[in-house]
Amino acid sequence: xxxxxxxxxxxxxxxxxxxxxxxxxxxxxxxxxxxxxxxxxxxxxxxxxxxxxxxxxxxxxxxxxxxxxxxxxxxxxxxxxxxxxxxxxxxxxxxxxxxxxxxxxxxxxxxxxxxxxxxxxxxxxxxxxxxxxxxxxxxxxxxxxxxxxxxxxxxxxxxxxxxxxxxxxxxxxxxxxxxxxxxxxxxxxxxxxxxxxxxxxxxxxxxxxxxxxxxxxxxxxxxxxxxxxxxxxxxxxxxxxxxxxxxxxxxxxxxxxxxxxxxxxxxxxxxxxxxxxxxxxxxxxxxxxxxxxxxxxxxxxxxxxxxxxxxxxxxxxxxxxxxxxxxxxxxxxxxxxxxxxxxxxxxxxxxxxxxxxxxxxxxxxxxxxxxxxxxxxxxxxxxxxxxxxxxxxxxxxxxxxxxxxxxxxxxxxxxxxxxxxxxxxxxxxxxxxxxxxxxxxxxxxxxxxxxxxxxxxxxxxxxxxxxxxxxxxxxxxxxxxxxxxxxxxxxxxxxxxxxxxxxxxxxxxxxxxxxxxxxxxxxxxxxxxxxxxxxxxxxxxxxxxxxxxxxxxxxxxxxxxxxxxxxxxxxxxxxxxxxxxxxxxxxxxxxxxxxxxxxxxxxxxxxxxxxxxxxxxxxxxxxxxxxxxxxxxxxxxxxxxxxxxxxxxxxxxxxxxxxxxxxxxxxxxxxxxxxxxxxxxxxxxxxxxxxxxxxxxxxxxxxxxxxxxxxxxxxx
Length: 716
Hints:
The protein is an alpha+beta fold. Among the domains are: 3-144; 149-290, no CATH class; 527-707, no CATH class. It has 30 helices and 14 strands. The strands form four sheets. A six-stranded mixed beta sheet has the order 9-10-11-12-14-13, with helices on both faces. A four-stranded mixed beta sheet has the order 5-8-7-6. A hairpin with a 2-residue loop joins strand 10 and strand 11 (575-582). The radius of gyration is 28 Å and the shape is globular. The relative contact order is 0.07. The mean pLDDT is 93.
């Protein structure tokens, strides 16, 4: 072991030993594992492999009772198993004999079984012969066997298409993507196929030569003439038409097989990350199955909550729109007024949600130091969606109903563009200045009565993914988050900006904005200020309901622990609240939710437990704090309720390490007593407010509403 690994080992063993006298062995080990999972000990010169090696060599793993009683052992081990050289085979075999279930879950969490050439995996397979382990290995094999045909076919098809440049791939992909809008297609408004297109594009970017990004007007024209025009205008067919059709057919196969692979990856993720997933090797029976439908029901319930909250924010936005006086004004041209009005309301909705829930200010700062109004950024994306829906998708659908042939419908759409002097090809492109000119008209507001080219430039930058930079990132830093198609729907190639109408027309612009800010650009300079603002806005909402609120209280550190800063302590009528606030992005898969639970929320619960101890002491000893809170009780332990408040909805109402997770949006609805707004606007009933506080607001009733899930009862 290296010197750094030894330092880490000593740290983990000291934490374990320090906690043993007051905790059970299992809980003492968990305290140690929290340190590891939160990348402690910290230090620029300490790497993940140093910490993994140090943890794996700690003596506590040999204590069968400690490992059996630990809730985090499998999770921590899964991080160690990411490295083949961090843990000894001897220790793994010890765990296999004495704590087999712990090790099997670690293998599942880490997906070690996917690394079939791993020395650890091969050693385990060679040494473990018992029935339970053989069944486990057999299930892992069966799951992987299903992937092989997909991977072989994907490799073969990519070989057939490797001669295509990035632009040429875009051309063919844009044609095939319109199938989702045909009568026989799914009209997939949720963008389920986008994952497929996204993966195909990212795979291409990983192997793109530099030349693909040196795009000139001549190269652009030549490429379109060779690859797109023969498909759209076959009557002017060139000798290359047959090759174009062949490329199209190969890409269609790639889309289909990539979709099948992604679908099957979902089964592997189910096996790896769903605690209710069981496995078996029985003839004629599936290898994995759920113990119950509870997980599926929770996922479906989350979807229903999302739908209800969509109505909530739209209803608030409509009211704000009316109050602003905009309802009396014509927005844009009279023929587009209704569509533009809806786009404006959606932008107001997103602004409200981003400011109230995610702590954004009314301006967004970009990496180049420029600023742009949040509302204008959102309005531009909504108007872009309206434009592509009206000018591309709807006309295409009309043409398809008449012809029934994809290429013919796209051909007529393109000809419409030729006649009107506008680009109506399956994808659009323009130089940066032209794109800015078009966006400028959407920035008209009180501040800029004639629009602002600078704002338009910043809006374009916000929504743009520079594909050359992304290609370099994928090659050099493959683990860095890459923007999804809809998160940055303007794609820069050379001096040109490309867009896919089939993405922009149906994307959720709110989700796109949140994930652009919080997932893709999570290291922005404004993040800290936004996080603090989330706490301050919530504090203000609680004060409006009569709570005394302490923000950012720092309990005295002790020799045993420094709990750090407490987000919110609240008091009203003997009810104490201790809130740990977390703000992140919108997740779209069970794996992402699992990562959120095991990383962000696990850490939040651990922090909250420590802060709870410190705050309880402070509530007895710190008279100034008691005075500011107006708290006179003598038993704060009985009065204190500790929650994790999360901007994500996925784990709302669930428990993480004994602490209730409460959605920040749910709290917003509850504190404003606006349950009635969780309905479509045409079903609102002013005479039936559906109050959560029929006898008036009280802290006790507020506590009851949150902890009983009263907000959702009967409607979700």
